[in-house]
Amino acid sequence: MIKAFRPAWAALGLLCFTNEAGATSLRRDVKAGSLCEFAEKEPLLSCKKVAAGGSSWNANLHEAWHQLCQDSQTSPYMEVFLDKRFKENYHHVYKSDGWADSAWVNYVAVKKSGGVFGKLTERLVESIHRFSQHPIIVVNFGQEAPEELSPRRFPRLVLLHARGFDPALRLSFNFNKLRAILLAQAKVGASLDSDMLLVGPQADQLLNRTAEEITEKYRFPMMPTHFLDRDLRDKNSGKGNFLPYSCKNCPEPTMRWGQAQPTWTHWSFPFVSRWLTAKMKGRSQNGVPTDDIAEDEDLLNVALWSEGATKSWCAFQTGGINFLWENLYPQHPPGPYPYYEDPRYFPAGIPVAFWFGHAEKDPAHIDNALTFLSDSSRINTQPPKPFYHNMTFFASFKELKQAYPDLKCTL
Ligand SMILES: *[C@@H]1O[C@H](CO)[C@@H](O)[C@H](O)[C@H]1NC(C)=O
Ligand SMILES: *[C@@H]1O[C@H](CO)[C@@H](O)[C@H](O)[C@H]1NC(C)=O
Question: Running DSSP on this structure, what letter comes out for residue 223?
Fold first, then answer.
């Protein structure tokens, strides 16, 4: 099903070299990783190249970069380079002012020997090309290029390169998700992990809805509701999906715990930068020490509570991929019932849209899903209703919302 496309350069072993021009711009105290050999010489963006003024998106990006660029420890990480082989795709996806209107944004690094993450990313990108009208931007934070990502096979893919973290910073690789938000130059975006798979066309409305919800008046990223309830105040709830989260000087939660698939618009860039800078510098933000906050998901939740954010998406991803044939297509309610409830925000369980599979790590099993989805007998029949809440499937979120007007999440 996935074509075994192996371009000529794949045979070269994909050796990557330090980009000399970039290396000289690094300060001595930070040893940011080397760039991939396919990176162009001149960055698309760098601390010197982010100009204030003009549009609100340029102003927001400039505000976000200001903090990161003031500091010799963070500034080397704010350069991003187009992959030389993706120039044509770049010109289709990005406007002449250097911005994409909307995009899915993924971050990745692969090992020299290949490995599973390149294959997973290939399948994510394939699913986006099948089911979405939006482009996908992959920001590579490793020295090796994911050889599966071909500009010709994937015309709406743009591959960018940036330096990986110095191991001395002791940062989880996943904080590159926040860097990718600031480097991709999309006005509206959603962060996707490599182990996700888009399974139908309706998810495209997520980016449209993001543009409606995240505005000058409400600037925070939005995350989908997690199946876990991590709110310490619910410690006596006795629910199976309760897993307490605590941090030093932890702010009081303002929402149910969210999953690390933020969507955002350019209005969110300063927020992302504030918390990324604090984390990279190991300092407090709003009185919350970030040192012990281990992962991107933890930081995003704590940061959103700390700044008083209130908006969540309903769940839009399901663990694994078997839900396609076990739940979505047979329209068979998923377990448990109620679906991952909590006593405070979702006593009847959380609504879910079957838009993405998440966390399936076996590429061969993902191929089973892609084969399942391309079966012509399925394509030619009425698509299944993708929204589910309280034992009922709905064709649209509007219908679901009519049945349950008081939901604490939206889509
Ligand atoms: C959603 O966004 C796409 C791409 O920006 C656009 O073409 C489409 O018209 C939008 N759809 C709606 C319903 O707003
Ligand atoms: C969930 O569905 C059941 C059965 O139809 C109904 O009795 C119950 O009121 C619903 N829950 C909510 C919160 O509406």
Answer: -
